[in-house]
Structures are given as C-alpha cells and as structure tokens.
Amino acid sequence: MNWHAVFHHFWPHIAAGCYAVACLLATSHALLYKRDTRAAMIWIGVIWTLPALGPLLYLVLGVNRIRRRAIKLGVHKTLSRPVPENLGEAESSCAEHLQHIARVVSRVATQALTTGNHIEPLCAGDAAFPAMLAAIDAAKKSITLCTYIFDNDPSGRKFVAVLERAVKRGVAVRVLIDSAGTRYSWPPITWRLRHAKIPHARFLPTSLFAPWQVATINLRNHRKSLVVDGGIAFTGGMNIRHGNVLADHPRHPVQDLHFRVTGPVVTELQEAFANDWAFTTNEILDGELWFPGLPEAGDVIARVITDGPDADFENARWTLLAALAEAQTSIKILTPYFLPDIALVTAINLASLRGVRVDIVLPAKNNLPFVHWASCAMWWQVLERGCHIWLSRPPFDHSKLMIVDGHWVLFGSANWDTRSLRLNFEMNVEAYGRTFATEMEKIFSQKIATAREVTLAEMDSRPLFIKLRDSIARLFSPYL
Fold it and tell me: Residue 313: pLDDT band by 50, 70, 90 thresholds?
C-alpha cells in the first residue's frame, strides 16, 4: 500500500478532523473556565470562525497559566481572619458597617488587618521622590523596589545613583520592574542598573524572539513599592518618571499621590514584593534582613490587598463592591481611568439611590484620549442616578483614592477599569481611622474646589459624532 498516496488523498480530511478536535477542546475549556459569559461567547466565536488560528489564539491568550504558577509558590488565601472590634471608632455602633467591609476583605484577601500604623500622604514627585531617595541613602541592611515604569530620565538616574551607593556600602538591594514598563524610555533603565551592578529583574519579560512568552504579553505588574530596612515603606500610584516633579515644569507633567508607611503593615508590603521576586527569579527573600520585627508607629488600622490574575484574582473588585455596599453617608472616588464594569456601576448607583453622596473626580485632560472617550460614554450611567462627576484641571491627575464615610480609605495602584481589576498585578492598602481619612478628604476637597462638575444635560447635548466616537471606544474598554 502506498501510504504517501493515501495521505495525499486523505490529508484534507485528516486536517479537518484535527481542527475540529482542537476547536472542541478549546471550546470545552472556555465553557468550563471562563467566568464571564460574554468572554466565553467571544472566545468560542473566535475559535470556530478563524480556521486553525482560533484554537491557537485561545491556547496562547485565553488560558490562564499564571494562577498555577503562583499557587506553586505558596500564595494561598485564608478564608477568615480576626477583625479588630472597633476599627478605630470609639463606639462599636459607629463601626458596624466598617466591620462588614473588613469581614468581606478578610475572606478574600491574603493579608490580615494590622493595628498601629502611620501613613503620610506625599503629593507629586516633588514630595515623594526626595523622601524616597533620602530613605534609600539612609538604608543600612536592605532595599526592595518594585515599580511599573522606571524611566531613564533625570529622576530615574537619581534613583539609580542612590541605589548604586547602597550596593557599594553593602546593602542588599533588589529591584523589580515590569517588562512593559521598561519600554517607556530609551535606552531602558535596565542598562544603567546592570552597569551599576544593582540586582534587578524584569517581571514577565516578553520578546519577539521568544514566541512562547506571548501568553503573558497582556499581563503587567502595576504595583509600586519601596521598602527600606524592612521598616519604612513607600507605596501608592506613582511611577518613577520625571514628569511627576511638577516644580521642574516637565514636558508631560503628572499629578499623583504616594504614601510613606511605617508600622506592622510594612511587613505585608515586603511580603508582596518577596512573592513577586520569587515568582520572577526563584530567589526566596526571608529572615531578619528582609522581615525585622516592627513596633507600632501610629493609630491607623491597615491591610495590604494584592490583586492579580492568579491566587489573588479580583480581590480589589470584591473590596470595591463591599465598600460601595456598606457606605452610609459619602463615597469619594479619585481615579485617572474610570471604566467600571456593570456590577460596579450598579453598586455605585445603588449607593446613590440609598442617599449616599457619591463624588467621582476624573482628569479633564487624560493622557490616553481613547480611554477618555470610552469613559465619557459611560458617565451618563451614574449621572442619571444622582452621582456627581468632577473634572480636575490639568496637569493630568494619575492619583488613585477612595474614601467612604470619612473613615475608610483605599489607595494604591489599581484603577477603576478591567485591566486593573482582572489583568494587572495590583497592590492597594485599605486603612481605617478618622484622622487619616480626614487628612485624605482635605486633599480630595482641594481637587474638587478647582474642578468643573459635569451634568447629565451636558453629556446629552454632545454632538452625535462625538457620542458615536465615544461609544465605539467603549466597545474596547475590556482591552484598554
């Protein structure tokens, strides 16, 4: 029998059969593991309508491999943790709804609430960068730095210089940068770090010459933290870019918020870095060098909430939903990118309908016009239910902050969009305490004082072509 002739005759049937099996396997996986019905339907459409390419695209982009790797590194959830009785309120009756928020977050987050913390806001790079540089220069034992963007610019070079001095005096230094974040400047800062012999790594590196890495091309480590000697930390939403230093009148100025943190919660920030570093390099950071015993430093009750497409999936989203559901008097939201999913929109509107005052501050001029258009297409959904949207004056405001009832505060790296809440590795801090919350409300009020309120009538009166442009952009909101 001439097998070559048989194969030549039947190969179209064999190829069709293999394609059908691949489509069936990919479809079965999408049906079983995709939580979002719309995502499952879209992927099934892609699988069956793109010959050969559909199953391959799903294999590369649709299957979550990060979850398995993270669990192998020992990242596990605890189903319940003790919650402090009064959460900083003198009377337990005032803290009952705060208890509900804390209880929800305690059931979804890896970390526990800690007492005795001090948190100080640092506005823009003008305040944050000198404080961070001074802390690095004073380091005696260890430094860990995690950032999304680390530009090779005047500010970035200052950080390299102080890190190099720290290495030379014997301080243990580890620097973790997201792979995508190294591409915002050229040449990348990694060249300077390598030349200065500063231990560093890129999170989920991708390359055109390594096609097997394409599966993680859409996943980014958006976390920002600096921990010095295991005892003082800086975290928030600020990247290392000279645009944050407003006093120098940079070409692309950016307003932002960062925070100096002391107290037991610093250990949780260090744990988050250690997990990311182990994930990236397989090096385990442990012991007194990285995790010294920490005394109480203030009266803020706080917890680190890590979030990502792994064992911490949707922790930030659950936290936002819990806070929106329990708010009694006021909700204040400050974010650069406002593209919430339908569940978050519903929760915001329900709070407003219950009589809670909802204020949302967004930048009047966004650094990503397409994202701004998509966001505009959604504003009517909250405006028609009585929420208030304010547009802050330039420069672009990259700050991320949420305040509930003048007591509960959430700050960190996550935005109100699908990328932050489902794809990125994010890190936020929830804080309980009226003194700190009052301080943050002052910052929020200062932004509103110079902002312009948007009305529903204004949104309805936009020209038709603008409405169509914004609505088309909104279709892509899950991918922005």
Answer: confident
Q: Flag whether pLDDT at 55 surpasses 50.
A: yes
Please give the C-alpha separations between residue 85 and each of 27, 97, 99, 404, in angstroms, as whole numbers.
48, 12, 8, 19
| Nearest of 245, 232, 256 to residue 412 by alpha carbon | 256
Tokens of 305: 């909430």
Q: Please tell me the distance from the alpha carbon of residue 175 to that of residue 198, in angstroms, as a whole number.
A: 8
Q: List, in order, residues 6 or more apart from 141 with CB less than 8 Å away.
A: 171, 172, 229, 230, 289
Cα 444 from Cα 409, distance rounded (Å): 12
402 φψ region: left (φ > 0), alpha (ψ -120 to 50), beta (else): beta
Residue 108 and residue 192: Cα distance in Å, rounded? Answer: 39
Position 186, amino acid? W
pLDDT value at position 174? 98
Q: How far apart are CA 170 and CA 295, in angstroms?
A: 25
How far apart CA 96 and CA 171 sit, in angstroms, is 45
What per-residue confidence (pLDDT) applies to 215?
52
Measured CA angle at 262 (ends 257, 264), to 5 deg: 125
The torsion region of residue 72 among left (phi > 0), alpha (psi -120 to 50) and beta comes to alpha
Question: Whole-angstrom Cα distance, residue 188 to residue 202?
Answer: 11
- Helices and strands: H and E segment counts in the chain: 16, 17
Q: According to the model, what pLDDT value does residue 304 have?
A: 98
Cβ distance 213 to 239 under 8 Å? no
Helix/strand/coil for 253? coil
Q: What is the pLDDT of residue 42?
A: 76
| Structure tokens given for 368 | 């990503």
Q: d(Cα 25, Cα 48) in Å, to the nearest integer?
A: 11
- The DSSP secondary-structure symbol of 61 reads I
Return the sign of the alpha-carbon dihedral for residues 102, 105, 107, 110.
negative
Round to whole Å and give the CA distance between 254 and 241.
9
DSSP-assigned states of every residue in 168-193: HTT-EEEEEEETGGGGGSSS-HHHHH
Number of neighbouring beta carbons within 10 Å of residue 79 = 7
Taking a C-beta distance cutoff of 8 angstroms, is the pair 75, 110 a contact? yes
Which pair of tokens denotes residue 426?
Answer: 């994010």
